[in-house]
Amino acid sequence: MNEKKTYEKRIAALETKIASLENARFIKRSTTPYTWSGWAERYGLIVAWIIVILVMGAIKPDQMFAWNSYASMFGSNAMVVVLTLALIIPLTTGDFDLSVAATMGLSSMIIAVLNVHQGIPIGGAVLAALGAGALVGIVNAFFVLYFKVFSLIVTLGTGYFVSGLILWISDSGTVAGISMELVRVVILTRFLGIPIGFYYAGAITIVLWYIFQHTALGRRMLFVGRGREVARLSGVNVTRVRSGALIASSIMAAFAGVLYTGMRGVADPSSALAFLLPAFAAAFLGSTAIYPGRFNAFGSFVAVYFLSTGIMGLNFLGVDSFVRNLFYGGGLVIAVAVSQVIRGRKEMT
What we know:
This protein has 349 residues and is mainly alpha-helical. The chain folds into 2 domains: 1-40, no CATH class; 53-342, ABC transporter involved in vitamin B12 uptake, BtuC (Orthogonal Bundle). It is built from 16 helices and 4 strands. Helix 6 (100-117) packs parallel to helix 8 (151-170) and helix 7 runs antiparallel to helix 8.
């Protein structure tokens, strides 16, 4: 019996040492100077964004080179940026959250119902919406971690459940008349012609970048996503990291609902669901840029506006609306394929 315990201790010590070497190898890769090909890989999406602007601008210069077009696009897609950032938090830890769009819609509808129908001040309605988002995240984390159900299945079911809840509390109708105070602090207030909602999204991007790149929490999340058993042997509380990621994702999705409501001034039961595909496309496309091979905040930020610029240009060209679905769907497939290739190459180096 003693020999068996000694053997198990040696195995555990060896696995811990392997985990430490793996972590050290990752840190070494992160601090290695970039070659020209590395720089091209990191900033290729930004270059592609510029090329899209120039090519479409050559065809529609009055619209594509007008500052007002971009100011409007930056503001109107702020909630997509926040929704994408919400997605990459659990994606970094190896989990999927398919309920983020429904959570965004629930947040929007709670604000509308409480503010318009119940007469609750907009500040209280916003806090209630964020609380509802936290509750969705807790439910997701409970079923994923306690019952060991794959996150894709749990969040898909949660998303449908939340969609039904939205229809119930809204009586399947649009709710208008939301306080103009929310509209003012999201879209009417502008800086450099850009709605203030864009700067909220930019601030969240910077905060998330700092957490991922410069904190122990960010490193733990990355280690959990790359190997849960290795992370556990390294002393990381995997359950806590994964549950925190799912809850944070839902709270951020609820905040995206706040921006969405302020941008429109109304809430409807179903429109938020249309943003799930663009958010996933941007999340995976963003993982091919800035910090290739992993989900990152700045890459997601650039990817959202790269895709939005393409859609805006196609609209200026008078392309049929169905092309939007083709654009986002094709973009998602290509982005996932490219990100997998890059991630595989990073693991081998």
